[in-house]
Amino acid sequence: MNTLHFEKLGFNFIGKSTKTNEVTKHRRFFAFFGASPKFVAFLWSELVKSGWFNFAPTKIVKPSHLLMALNFLKCYNVEEVNALFFNCDEKTFRQGSWFVLKGIAKLSKKIVSFLFVYFFYF
Predict the structure, then answer these.
(1) Which pLDDT tens digit goes with each residue over 32-50?
(2) Which terminus of the chain, N or C, has less C-beta within 10 A?
(3) Which residues does 18 contact at the CB level (< 8 Å), separation at least 6?
């Protein structure tokens, strides 16, 4: 998965077009997911390399689950609101986002501490 794929996927959920200037796109993406598409792609690659997805209960973990988890951390809405935003039911949102969050927690301390600084100080 590359940066462009996550940008396009994120803007599908946001409901806005990507046909705007780069500053506005970055601001909108960051407002919903708390990170840039480049960082989201990096995080996805780290999760894939870690082998965490081999333990998925459904055996199908999608990039949208990572966006669900990041949106949950950034906005902290109730499940019903998040599920509507991501066009899924509450159980799918809960299982997908929490599975990815547990995978992020299992990453190396260097990456997790960077995430903490990234999400809570910027």
Answers:
(1) 888 888 888 888 888 888 8
(2) C
(3) 7, 8, 11, 25
